[in-house]
Structures are given as C-alpha cells and as structure tokens.
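Today's session is about reading a structure prediction critically. Students often jump straight to the picture, but the first step is always the sequence itself: look for stretches that repeat, for charged clusters, for runs of hydrophobic residues. Only then move on to the predicted structure, which in these notes is written as discrete structure tokens rather than atom positions. Here is the chain we will use throughout the hour.
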Amino acid sequence: MNSVLAIFLLSTVTAVSSSVAKGRYEYVVMNANGPVDDSQVDLRGPHICYWPQPYSLSRFEPTFFVRTRDGDIPFDISSNDQIPDMVATVQQQGLLKSRVVFVVHGYENNINTTWLYEMSDAILAVEDDTVIVTGWGKGADFYIDYAQAASNTQTVSAAVALLAQTLRGAEASLYLYCIGHSLGAHVCGQAGHDFKFDRVSGLDPAGPGFEYCPDNPGLTNSSADCVDVLHTNGEEYDGFGRLDPLGHIDFYLSCGKTQPGCLRVEIGCSHDKAIYDFMSTVNASGGDPLQYPVSQGPCNDEFLANCVPCTDKSCPPSQSTCGQDPSAYQPVGFRSACSDTRLTISCGSGPREQAFGKWFVPVTKKGYDLFCTSSSPRKVLQ
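Below is the predicted structure for this chain, in token form.
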C-alpha cells in the first residue's frame, strides 16, 4: 500500500486540505474504501486518483529506438500515422526478428536514460531479438507533475499498442513482449489492454495514482498471455511501487519492501532495484535458467535474516543457506515461467501454471544483484 506521501515526493503537490490536494490540479483523495470524507484525510492512508487530461502525442513525441544485433534505427513519432512507415522501414532493413521486446521507462526518465541501454544490451547479448527502447521523456521527465505523467501513460500506451498491432500485422508469428519499470509497467499494461501482448514483465509497477484507483488503467493479468511482476518498493507509507498482486506470477523481493543495499529514506533506491535485479537475471540466463528459492510465505524478518540465496545452476541450488526450507525453486525475472511453458516450480517439468501465484524471494544482503554478481547498489543514472 502507498500513501499520498509518495505523491508528494514524486510531484509538485505542496499541501493537503480537506479531501483535495492543492497544487497544479485538484485531486480526488481515495483509500481502499473509496473517496475519503473531509474529516478522514490522513497523510498515512489516502491515495490520489484524479488525473488531468493527457498530453497529445505530438506534444511529447515519443522515440522508438529499434535495436538489434544487426543495427539500430531511432524513430521519433509525433503522429500515429507514422507507425506503418516505421514498421515498413524496420522490415526493409531486415531488423524484424521473431521476437520484439519493448523496454519502457517510467517517471523522471527519458530516451537517454542509461538503464534502457544496459537492459537492451543485456537482452541482445543472449537473444537475437528486436528490442524497441521506448522513450517518452517529454511526458514523464522531472519537470512534469507526477499526476500529469501518470495520465500521459494513456497516450504513449496507445502508440505502443498500435505499433505492436502493426508489427503483428506485418508478421503474424511475431512474439510480442513488453518490459516496463514504474509508470512504464503501466504503459505496457495499458497497451496490452488495447492489443494483447504475449508477455509483459512489470518492474515494480507504480503505486501512486493506480492503487485503489479502479478507474485508472494500468497493468493487470489481462495485459498479456503471461504477466510476471517484480515488487521491490511497496512500503506502506512511502513506497513508489505497490504490494497487491498484478500478474500471473508476482515475485516479492525481500517481501517487496526496502531492499538490501538501500535505506528506506533513500528516495527511489528500492524502486529502481527492480530494474537491476531483473537485469541480473538476463545476464545470468545464458543456457539453462537459474533456479531460485521461493516461498509462499510468511515473509518476515526471520525469513530475510536467515536466507542468503547465492545460487548456481544445480537444482535445488547447492549454495543456498536458507534457515528454513523454501517451498519451491523456480526461475525469477527474465527466465521466469512466463518465458517457457515447460517450466514449473520445484525444478520439475510440466505446465507453467504450477508456478503461477504470489512468491516471496529472499535477496542476498551482501550484493545488489539477484545472483550475487555485484557488491554494491547501483542507482538509475541519467
């Protein structure tokens, strides 16, 4: 659960009075039971659900940067009418592979954000895919009010959906996959509602403006045939992510709250960790996917204190030092059960649905990456 405090940290809202917040807009204040009465306003619980009108596509001109092992082409899109020509060019250049992976940033990022290229480089190192880095910084950058950026996800998601649909029209057997962080996860989710993806991976989907806001579109398990989610910053009062399950498979790293290597007061650290933890599963996924200890609960201090899950490719992992027996082992992140219909929990074989559900994942305290490949945390760099 997230509070209005997270909105304050992410936007230009400056004060709360009665059931509206005063800033650039009036916001409807919500909690789990609906609109909050004047006398019930409390910074620890309400959620802001009102969105202003989204920007037009021509106002923030998203960039679709097509990247492959064979070459790269950037496309700046100011009108959806440009998308058919874009797809035709990608085909003519021989850059349309059998799988297309969209990589979408969230708030305060843009097309130049470093992690987008680290992620796409990691994917291309192990897979011969078409990766489309999706930048919409003029609708999401630091000078944009958070509520406006949340609303702008509607515009960019419509363009992503149209591009996905046009790509599928050009190649019927194309596999369409969308990876998004924070608001980017909801871009993937909304696009999937318009044109269903084969797979969506949500990296700590944004909570403020979406949680407890049923009228605001976002990531759900109907966004793709298989939706997997990493939760890393669903703190009750100041988290930027959310704790409620959104996909077919929801992984809660360190209970989905403050992450190892991050202090709770470090704004965005745990939220951004979802990016690099997911990326570590790409880097570590050459060949057979690593099996990782998971549990369906409870997730508490004892579980986190007694589990140091450095793993290898054995099954179960021979290096795990969990103080309690995990209920299962399964791949997490890029090679989750969403990636392969043969994968199941407990290192077995069979329908992937056995791996579906809500899973708690212990994360090593001595490293930042999921598989102990780094010794210190890294933040998202511009």
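Discussion point for the tutorial: The mean pLDDT is 78.
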